[in-house]
Amino acid sequence: MSAIHARQGHDRPYGAEYGLSLKAAFYLAAILLVLLGAMARAQDAHDTTFYPQDADAAAVIDAALAQAQDEGKLALIVFGADWCHDSVGLAETLDENDRLSTLIADHYVLARVDVGQRHRNQDQLQRFGLAASFGTPTVVIAQEDGAALNGATAHDWRTAYNAAPSDIAAYLSRYGGLDWNGAPVASADLSAVAANWPPYQTAMQTLASQRENGEISAEHAASQHAYATGMARSIARYGAGQEAQAQGLAVADRADLDALGVTPSDDLTDAVILRVAEIEFDLLARFEAQIEETRAAMAGDAAGHEEH
């Protein structure tokens, strides 16, 4: 019998043996039903596929660029994966935040591409002048002719789950050539925060030493540098979002606000530098670990193809 029914051999209502009245038992059952419903909705959200693995990425991107050209918009192409907390978080924020969903509907054509463990559809990233996925999600804003507008900052969204909606709005407004909506917004200089983050400084010093001593190739050093810089700026973005939330403010990257001609209400840069200073991260070790993860994923895909 289900636990919601009376136990065999008991004359008292279920729950009475625990000192619960019939009314309290009904309340408890109602609460349980609410919790189960919330869990089911959370599971449904978790099961949503934003980055389908079996999609033809080239066709998806071609269609987005063609639609952008027809409608006089930009293409917003997010390279991510459904296993990735931040890829899913960005997808949910763009879909559920009214301001962002309207901004995208009016000015962008949105497409999402699966990259697995950074081993799938890398050729599609390279169409936009990006060497590879150094983290997920990677965000590309492209003109109708396929030229990327944001190549220098495409890798800066690895903490997108915690990015402030105002930060995302300023970024999309900047590259979309749009006017700011006039809402007050604080700034944080993400470049300054990243440059002052101790793990990034350590990584840059180590990298310079390795290059000087001929311990790594120029190509590998360039990949390490791109990974570390994108990760440092992503941590800066995370810190900005956390600090703004703590202070009850909207926030955006100072570079985006400058490009939009917006005077920020507050400067949170120093506070964000302090906030992220205690985040420990071995950037170069993590980069090497990612390479091994990618190799393992590629081997797994290859083995799967052989079985079929």
Could you explain how this protein is built, in words?
The chain has 308 residues and is mainly alpha-helical. It has helices at residues 22-47, 57-71, 85-96, 98-107, 122-126, 165-175, 190-196, 198-212, 218-247, 254-260, 269-276, 283-307; strands at residues 74-80, 108-114, 138-142, 186-188, 251-253. The protein has 12 helices and 5 strands. The strands form 2 sheets. A 3-stranded mixed β-sheet has the order 2-1-3. The protein has a two-stranded parallel sheet with strand order 4-5.
Question: Which features does this protein show?
Answer:
308 residues; mainly alpha; Glutaredoxin; Protein Binding, DinI Protein, Chain A; 2 domains; three-stranded mixed β-sheet; two-stranded parallel sheet; 5 strands; globular; disordered N terminus
In short:
The chain contains twelve helices and five strands. By secondary structure, the chain is mostly helical.
Rounded to an integer in angstroms, the radius of gyration calculated over CA atoms is 24 Å
Query: What is the molecular shape?
Result: globular
Instruction: Output the strand order for the largest sheet.
Output: 2-1-3
How many H/I helices? 12
Q: Tell me the CATH topology of the largest domain.
A: Protein Binding, DinI Protein, Chain A
Rounded mean pLDDT is 86
CATH architecture of the largest domain: 2-Layer Sandwich
Record field, number of beta strands: 5
Proportion of residues in helical segments: 55-70%
CATH class of the largest domain: Alpha Beta
How would you sum up the major sheet?
A: 3 strands, mixed
